[in-house]
Amino acid sequence: MNGSLLEVSAVSVTFDGFKAINRLSFSIGPTELRAIIGPNGAGKTTFMDIVTGKTRPDEGQVLWGEELTRNLVGMDEARIARAGIGRKFQRPTVFEDQTVFANLLMAHKNNRSPLAVLFYKPKRQDIAAVETLAARIGLAEQIRRKAGELSHGQKQWLEIGMLLAQDPKLLLVDEPAAGMTLGERERTADLLKEAAKTRAVVVVEHDMEFVRRLGCKVTVFHEGSMLAEGSLDHVTRNQDVIDVYLGR
Ligand code: ADP
């Protein structure tokens, strides 16, 4: 065992002759929180697409598991999700006309159809699990409210809760703090920090104050490669990083 849960090694992706990812390597431990930053076009989204199987790299490996014995390259998205990789896109995608309870129950029962849950009578242990989850994401009081009535921040937490209900080993989160109030950003950072106590969490984020609040190691992407890695203070003092952010 070498301590990593995911090890992306020298992957490249070319779109119409343009190298969007260029021999990128990245690894994360099983209970690690990591922020990925980098200017637009740096390859952050494509990186997540590779890990989740949406985009197949032209070269390189994506090794996975406690012993890094599985190569995810070529595996389809559904199988990768079942292997324990969850992804949250920037916009919340909850079932707005269903309650918080029903949304969480659906995820807890690993059921993607809100209709199926309407016909399902939850057992006591399912109810308890969903109530615990609602409290964990700060929505205990809203549990009977329709998801569509929640604030933007609360919808984001609900979706994070729906992903946590599936208990992924790795959670990829794209710009969770975008559009949130300061108070919501603080709670989101706490939620992700707590989630990373029992799984790996990768957060792609532009908001540096939010990254500071996460207080974790930061990886800087640039032109499809890793430019720098370390604490936020370390990477923001790096001259290459300063030049990239100032567009030099
Ligand atoms: P980021 O998420 O860091 O903004 P992306 O991963 O979205 O960066 O994009 C990396 C580069 O790859 C960009 O130059 C983008 O225009 C290009 N790119 C991404 N997806 C495609 C695609 N499907 N076809 C062509 N070019 C793409």
UniProtKB/TrEMBL annotation:
Residues 6-248 form the ABC transporter domain. GO terms for cellular component: plasma membrane. SUPFAM superfamilies: P-loop containing nucleoside triphosphate hydrolases. Gene3D superfamilies: P-loop containing nucleotide triphosphate hydrolases (3.40.50.300). Keywords: ATP-binding, Nucleotide-binding, Transport. Pfam families: ABC_tran. The keyword Transport applies. InterPro entries: ABC_AA/LPS_Transport, ABC_transporter-like_ATP-bd, ABC_transptr_urea_ATP-bd_UrtD, P-loop_NTPase. One of its GO terms (molecular function) is ATP binding. This is Urea transport system ATP-binding protein. It comes from Rhodospira trueperi.
